[in-house]
Amino acid sequence: SMMEYLEKILQDHFSTSLMLMLAGLIQAEEGDEPAMAFLSSQLRIHPSVQGLEQMVALSLSSQKSETETLEILRDLMKRLLQDRPHFKCQGCGFEGKSLHWQCPRCKQWAQVKPIQVSSSYYL
């Protein structure tokens, strides 16, 4: 069937767009619960903000317990926080996860500073 073919493609070559399309097809053919189960399993492997947004929308429309959605949201937020840069060069804007005494991009000394958590940079 078309669904099996698309699921095979998704398994072999993950794409957020394809995941969202499949979730929509599953929702249309089988309902909210199977679509949420599909999204949940995919988001645990391939977290994405778009996928989470679709899952939250499904959760709101189906009145399902939001525990699973919140768990996935927490996991996605942890990953996003882990992946963010912690340091930024005041001279050229270079960002990285580790402190460099000399900026790798502009070669200025002592310009790489910690990014302040209170900054609106991450909002």
Your description of this structure?
- The structure is a single chain.
- With 123 residues, the protein is mainly α.
- Helices cover 58% and strands 7% of the residues.
- The chain has a 3-stranded antiparallel beta sheet, with no helix packed on it.
- Strand 1 and strand 2 form a beta hairpin.
- The longest helix has 17 residues.
- The radius of gyration is 20 Å and the shape is elongated.
- The N and C termini lie far apart (43 Å).
Poorly predicted tracts of residues:
118-123
Q: What fraction of the residues are assigned to beta strands by DSSP?
A: 5-15%
Mean pLDDT: 83
Structure summary, number of beta strands: 3
Strand order of the largest sheet: 2-1-3
Number of continuous helical runs: 5
Shape: elongated
Binned, the helix content reads: 55-70%
> Gap between N and C termini, in Å?
43 Å
Based on CA atoms alone, the radius of gyration comes out at 20 Å
Q: Strand pairing plus helix content: what structural class?
A: mainly alpha
What are the salient characteristics of this protein?
123 residues, disordered C terminus, 5 helices, three-stranded antiparallel beta sheet
In short:
The chain has helices at residues 2-12, 16-30, 32-45, 49-62, 67-83; strands spanning 87-89, 95-96, 112-114.
Secondary structure: elements and pairs:
Blueprint: H1 2-12, H2 16-30, H3 32-45, H4 49-62, H5 67-83, E1 87-89, E2 95-96, E3 112-114
Antiparallel strand pairs: 1-2, 1-3
